[in-house]
């Protein structure tokens, strides 16, 4: 059993080290260019359904009772 | 494409601060941060006027123009949102904004300035819609659920309107016509003269 221990450790060590890897590439900023995450809401807003829903909601919420 | 806009009817606002409370409650806004405030001019004098102010989601947003890391983006509906993972909390946007919308929460025991926080029109931010991550960073995403900002929906006198700019303008125009037939927004007389 102990004969295989160094071999097992040698195989596991690269995996452990690889697990600790962190991407340190900095974001290179270009003036006026947004490089953040994409907002899933942007796609939803393109759909007419959500727009109609918001407009209907406005008619209910903003109209005098 | 519609443009989402806020409009506060100063003739109707009664300075109840329900919009401020609704915003804080809906978005779990950090202590010391006010995404929305009610400002009163000539407080206590006859003819005082109150108006509810937050981020106005400007068409050509000065906050986005001065941001050194370009953490702002604008949706197709004209909502100005930002990515807190990119924000460095420098405070330039606070100086640029004419409404004082960008806020900075105090963090750590030494009151270190945190990442910028502002009104999102209840549209969250660049995270999965209505996820925990989005709620913790940006607050509620009511727009993705087909709802309008909590501040406007809670307004008891319907002074604060939020929605498609054209629909907002239609309602405001009707009110103006019913009242006097002349816009009574602040600065109108100064800009255009009393006779207009």
Give the N-terminus to C-terminus distance of chain B in angstroms.
32 Å
The string of secondary-structure elements of chain B, in order, is: EHEEHEEHEEHHEHH
Structural class of chain A: mainly alpha
Content-based structural category of chain B: alpha+beta
Keywords:
heterodimer; A: 65 residues; mainly alpha; B: 196 residues; alpha+beta; Alpha-Beta Plaits; 27% helix
3D architecture notes:
The complex is a heterodimer of chains A (65) and B (196). Chain A is mainly alpha-helical. Helices cover 58% and strands 0% of the residues of chain A. Chain A is elongated. The N and C termini of chain A lie far apart (81 Å). The model of chain A has no long low-confidence stretch (mean pLDDT 85). Chain B is globular and about 50 Å long. Chain B has a two-stranded antiparallel sheet. Chain B has a two-stranded antiparallel sheet with strand order 2-3. A two-stranded antiparallel ribbon of chain B has the order 4-5. The mean pLDDT of chain B is 90.
